[in-house]
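Notes, p. 3: input format for complexes.
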Amino acid sequence: MQHGAGSFAEIRGRRAHCVDSGGDGPAVVLLHGFPLSCATWAGQVEALAPRWRVVAPDLAGFGLSDPPGDPEGQSMADYADDVAALLAHLGLGPVVLGGLSMGGYVSLAVLRHHPSLARALILADTRPGPDTPEVAARRTSQQAQVRAGRVDDLLDTLVGPLLAGPEHISRVREVMASASPEGILAALEAMKARPDATPELAAISVPTLVVVGALDTMSPPAVAQDMVARLPRARLAVVPGAGHLSNVESPEAFDAALVAFLEEVAG
Ligand code: MLT
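Output follows (267 residues plus D-malate):
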């Protein structure tokens, strides 16, 4: 999971990094989870190019992208505006928009604030609902940990629950090391404050692929099934043997579901 052929752009006053496979194919934009980077999409970039133009940005403060100017005031709408500005910069849209976990929260925010930018949607290992009070309180103590300079301790506790097995732990932990303290603070703030997207699902008219690792304990299959029931044009793909990072743990099954969906929406 290295950063591939990346490029930088000035997006809303900050330096933003993304991997862009280039070419003339239909565009697929993939948004990573927390506290990760576009490096987690390396397998999908390779599997989908050159048939598809795959764009995988580092969200603000992750990977090689600058952090937001006001981390404590960050919202999902800010990330959505960054995605919209990046697409405008690249001259792309409407695109197939996909996100895993926090990337899914951002994708739903793009649908809310910039609905014309998505012609199809991929929601992987994510949920439409807001944080419970317990989860929000946990994020507040994680923010205190970051402010106290204990980022490494926090990341050490975050990595295990993302994966069903031990195989990818060290690689994923390495990716986490590229997150800036400001980026982590901002994402925790935005996740805590994110609105409930559940009532919006019924109005999402674009074809949607919902993907979930069979062993995902963070956004389990039951949550994915409920999303599919509420979305007018959704189908479900359950990735066997995978936890929350289903694209990393079982890339063959994840990519097969993705390719089948993309071929259908391209046709
Ligand atoms: C993620 O993978 O993006 C996180 O698990 C999202 C969250 O903490 O809600």
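The chain has a mean pLDDT of 97.
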